[in-house]
Amino acid sequence: MAGDKHLSAFALNCSLKPTRASEKSSTDKMIEDLFSALQKHGVSGEVERATDFDIKPGVLSDEGDGDEWPGLREKILAADIFILGTPIWLGQPSSVAKRVVERMDAFLSEADDEGRMPPSGKVAIVAVVGNEDGAHHCHAAMFQALNDVGFTIPANAGVYWVGEAMSDVNYVDLKSVPAAVQETIDMAPSNAAHLARVLGASSYPGAK
């Protein structure tokens, strides 16, 4: 195991399917594979399905009565590494993923006296799955949003699998993970854990 400090990770699965759905989620499978790779680097954590929570629309950290985003926000900020998993729909990140980053807009106005936003020093990975083109677009959109609100993006942190267009084969149905995808699944956690330890030992100085 590289490094001595145990690290924590929190993953948010932004599938359109709730956990109670009988259909298996390819996004869950990708996140599970990432957690298996993270364990080799002393990282453990948990995953939640965003659709199991009432995430109100809005750009505040708490939108009031019934809003369950504050609890998820707490878990995201408590972890050293945040994993956002999203399927591709119509070439776009899921609407659930977009709502999640919209809620993070609140971080922009929650900076400390040194200009550091709440996710300062936190590392982010984005996992994308789908049966159509759009993985790079999804990564670009999600990474830009996460970086804007204070997360740090490691090298090679965009993990994805895209199946044959208009095919009914999903990532969760694969008998084995393609070698190129597995290399990325191994590389992203390695880089993320390394960067999280670096930032944990020496945090950002701030702008003042």
TrEMBL record:
Source domain of life is Bacteria
InterPro entries named among the record's database cross-references: Flavoprotein-like_sf (IPR029039), FMN_Rdtase-like_dom (IPR005025)
Gene Ontology terms for molecular function: oxidoreductase activity
Report domain NADPH-dependent FMN reductase-like positions: 12-164
- Check the record and name the Pfam families matching this protein: FMN_red
What protein does this entry describe? NADPH-dependent oxidoreductase
